[in-house]
Amino acid sequence: MGKKNGSEINYEVVIKRESDKDMKKKTIVGSIAIAAIVAVAIFAGCIEEDVPISTKLPKIPRLTEFFNPNPNVTEQTLPYVKASGLRVCLVNYKNATDPTWDELISFLEGDDTDEHPYIEDSFVCADFAEMLHNNAEVSGIKVAYVGVDFIVGEGHAINAFNTMDKGLVYVDCTRGFSAPIIAELTDSEKREEREHDKIAYVVEGKEYGLISIDRVTSPEYWFYEEYTKKWEELGKDIEAYNSDVEVYNNDVKAYERDVEAYERAVGGRTYISDHEEYERLNRVYNELKAREKELGGGGNKLDARRERLDERQEELGYYRWEPLGVVTNVEVYW
User: Fold this and answer.
1) N or C end of the chain: smaller count of CB under 10 Å?
2) In the predicted model, is pLDDT for residue 70 greater than 80?
């Protein structure tokens, strides 16, 4: 107790005069109070260690905050901070199981976590990873939260799934954190909606790679290296094609200008009496016909190249994701 004043002394006297039966009741009540305090410490869930100062009165907790109503569900607080300043809180289900590759892809296609915009002060990669984790667990899929560090720049938060048929698979669902690299064919009318659910390729000492789930068939790092090589070759070929198309289009415009000049010179005449003028115009005519044939052949070759590029782009996609840097450390929390 605090300092002893008159009322406190009288209170002590009253207690001493109580019967043994009353004393037992008070002992039981005291034990229940202590048990409740212990329960709070054990079952309160994800309690923040650093609580920000607030002028609001504390909320009166419900019983479900003191005692976990479902023993098959546990909560885990991680040493990572979300945009709000609160710690990442994982909700784990004991009945969650490892998925197959196809089950994982199907879950990601139906999950809407990647549709959230990345906003620096309200929803960042830690928020994305926490949300995907908890959505997967409640769907019965076992998943881990993963923290990744790089040689240069800030760290990143992703997820990991231990698939039954393809082993450990890293998934990055953060939207707007990595920039897309676009290789677009000249005059292309097709625009592909970007898939922000991505398979992440994470190996310490190597570049952190990403491939959208609609373009990937393997989580192995060699697949990312092969995909990147193909995409870089495709990008160079598209750049060369676009340059050749520009040259071809300029040649066509020059040809059309010369045709107009020839027609003005002829002036609609069907017979030219001046022999020298006739020879000159006939020479121009033959040159234009040769250029026309050459341009026709060049156009056909460009069309064939375009078809092959379209096929390759259909396989690899119309964009790829910029790598985030070289990985130095990976922390996995199941």
Assistant:
1) N
2) no
- Is the Cα torsion angle 275, 280, 286, 292 positive or negative in sign? negative
Distance of CA 141 to the CA centre of its chain: 19
205 vs 89, 158, 232, 322, 325, CA distance in Å?
Answer: 29, 18, 22, 17, 10
Across 164-182, average pLDDT: 88
Q: Please tell me the predicted confidence (pLDDT) of residue 175.
A: 87
Average pLDDT for residues 11-37, to the nearest whole number? 40
In the chain, domain spans: 72-227+320-333, 233-317
CB 150, CB 208: distance < 8 Å: yes
Lowest mean per-residue pLDDT among 25-39, 91-105, 177-191, 213-227: 25-39
